[in-house]
Amino acid sequence: MNMDQLVRDTLIEQGAQPQTPPPDLAGRVLAVRRRRRTRRISGVAVAAVLAVAAAVAVPVLDRGGDEPRLASGMNRSDIIAHPDQSPPRDLIAAGDTALAAYYVMDMVRKTDDRAVAVRDYHLLDQRTGKYVRTTDWSVVDVAPGMRTAAVLERELPARRIGLLDLLSGKVEHWIPVDRGVAGVAFSPDGDKLVATTYDENPDLRLRADYDNDGDGRKNDWMPQFGGSSRTGFYVLDVDTGDGSWARVAGGDQEHLNARQDFAFSGDGGLVYSGLTTAPHQRYYDFEGKEADTPAKERHLHWFVDARLSPDGSLAAGEFAGGSRATASEILDPLTGKRLHKVPGQQLLAWADDDRLVAWDIEPGANEFHNRLVLVTIGSDKVVPLSGFRKGNDGAGGRWTPLFARR
Amino acid sequence: MDAQGQEQFREFVENRTSALLRTAVLLSGGDRHAAEDLLQNALIKAAGKWQRIDEPEAYVRQILYRQQVSRWRLKWRRRELTVADPPEGSGGSDPSAAAELRIVMRGALARLTARQRTVLVLRYFEDLPEADVARILGCSVGTVRSTTHRSLARLRVLAPELAATAPADAERTPSRDFAPVEVRP
């Protein structure tokens, strides 16, 4: 055999090996083009906004230049999926959103009739791009850009809020607070934090005197319904720690879950919290005075995490499937009218203006056997992003995702 | 691209990705991740001109090849690949020995430069005459000939096990044309 033939045979043999196509390559390519086009059109305006944002939000936004690169910035693929991983081990992302962390709940018994529901977080290590378990924190929220997380220590309510650098793994600084906080959430631009204050640990559980899960044993831990100890919230500047506390007057106490944290409205100008009864959400200004619900948020549900699309033109709605197939609805935010139906059991985060990350099941499977998927408005295509979760709701080891803009 | 164009593009990608990816894997010396990058970039470029392209597959393949030999690609970090251990013996008509030789050859191909490998893929896998390879890569026939010659010589250096293999035709007729390739995909 001569070299010609050997090279030819080798290439033909190698070229005959089947190659599984990457999931939704066309969608990925079109999304990249769309993003590049948008960037070209709005390049100048975006540059101006970024310059201002970088000046005020130093720990949150990438300082650029000689900064070490973040793992989430090194891999800018449109879809980073690990359908074989549950819980995830390596960075998962789609479009502009990424799985910044997830937590697994555990019940820690304190006395015979009291226990605390504790979250063991797995945070993205920005040096390695892997999720790393930590038992240091009770509550975590990750800022847009995924450089900084706001963290609360294990004992709640906490007297300080940490700003954790996800690259170094160290708390860069602490914001002390006079009133105990047990919830934290960043504003959409990452400049502010809303910290919910409670008199007692909202994750406290009491032994139920009835068999809640029907397993024949009275061994269930339940939150204390109708007994909210929530008192109000702080709105704090992330850089300086400056801010003020606002009391949220009672009246709604019996319509709150034991943990009912505040979060920012879509434009960051108000805060809101869910209610267990109609109207299901209530908005407040930063002084704690009740405010009108923003027009585009009237049809949102506090328990549908995805909320408004990045351009504000669509609202993520509730489950709209039937007994055979899962689906969720996409609404006109102003009228509440259903505009689209997409696959997916529960909408978690917008990847861009026409794609969302959702929980979904395999057709016909148990409703709790679900995985993260990417769904697209106007398409039946479902791109798996993670492996399936195991166990029923509340079972040990089930993980809950936390998304952030990448 | 309008909605109809997008639909056609999606259909094309769905139907042709496997075949295109196989070529991209060859061009990338077996590195699947690099192959996906290469194909995705080629498709992004094709999507930009989608409605003006007459033969999408030929167009995407041309971008694949040209991207691979462009100067930008050559400056890009070179990936170190793990190469299978060379076998003890080689050659002969023994089928298992021939299979071992192909493994050695695959490892050696992976260690060529992207430009060298691309020329060999076009000449021996796509089976194109030198003139067509030159047209696709935007270089002279002499450059194709000299690159082929040097690539085969390099394979012998990278894999001494191939010493017993008879020289290829291209090795017998060295070319003096060593002009650098400069193409703009």
From TrEMBL, chain A:
<keyword id="KW-0472">Membrane</keyword>
<protein>
    <recommendedName>
        <fullName>WD40 repeat domain-containing protein</fullName>
    </recommendedName>
</protein>
<dbReference type="InterPro" id="IPR015943">
    <property type="entry name" value="WD40/YVTN_repeat-like_dom_sf"/>
</dbReference>
<dbReference type="InterPro" id="IPR011044">
    <property type="entry name" value="Quino_amine_DH_bsu"/>
</dbReference>
<feature type="transmembrane region" description="Helical">
    <location>
        <begin position="41"/>
        <end position="61"/>
    </location>
</feature>
<keyword id="KW-1133">Transmembrane helix</keyword>
<keyword id="KW-0812">Transmembrane</keyword>
TrEMBL record, chain B:
<dbReference type="GO" id="GO:0006352">
    <property type="term" value="P:DNA-templated transcription initiation"/>
</dbReference>
<comment type="similarity">
    <text>Belongs to the sigma-70 factor family. ECF subfamily.</text>
</comment>
<keyword id="KW-0240">DNA-directed RNA polymerase</keyword>
<dbReference type="GO" id="GO:0003677">
    <property type="term" value="F:DNA binding"/>
</dbReference>
<keyword id="KW-0804">Transcription</keyword>
<protein>
    <submittedName>
        <fullName>DNA-directed RNA polymerase sigma-70 factor</fullName>
    </submittedName>
</protein>
<dbReference type="Pfam" id="PF08281">
    <property type="entry name" value="Sigma70_r4_2"/>
</dbReference>
<dbReference type="GO" id="GO:0000428">
    <property type="term" value="C:DNA-directed RNA polymerase complex"/>
</dbReference>
<keyword id="KW-0731">Sigma factor</keyword>
<feature type="domain" description="RNA polymerase sigma factor 70 region 4 type 2">
    <location>
        <begin position="106"/>
        <end position="155"/>
    </location>
</feature>
<keyword id="KW-0238">DNA-binding</keyword>
<dbReference type="InterPro" id="IPR013325">
    <property type="entry name" value="RNA_pol_sigma_r2"/>
</dbReference>
<dbReference type="InterPro" id="IPR014284">
    <property type="entry name" value="RNA_pol_sigma-70_dom"/>
</dbReference>
<dbReference type="InterPro" id="IPR014325">
    <property type="entry name" value="RNA_pol_sigma-E_actinobac"/>
</dbReference>
<dbReference type="GO" id="GO:0016987">
    <property type="term" value="F:sigma factor activity"/>
</dbReference>
<dbReference type="InterPro" id="IPR013324">
    <property type="entry name" value="RNA_pol_sigma_r3/r4-like"/>
</dbReference>
<dbReference type="InterPro" id="IPR036388">
    <property type="entry name" value="WH-like_DNA-bd_sf"/>
</dbReference>
<dbReference type="InterPro" id="IPR013249">
    <property type="entry name" value="RNA_pol_sigma70_r4_t2"/>
</dbReference>
<feature type="region of interest" description="Disordered">
    <location>
        <begin position="166"/>
        <end position="185"/>
    </location>
</feature>
<keyword id="KW-0805">Transcription regulation</keyword>
<dbReference type="InterPro" id="IPR039425">
    <property type="entry name" value="RNA_pol_sigma-70-like"/>
</dbReference>
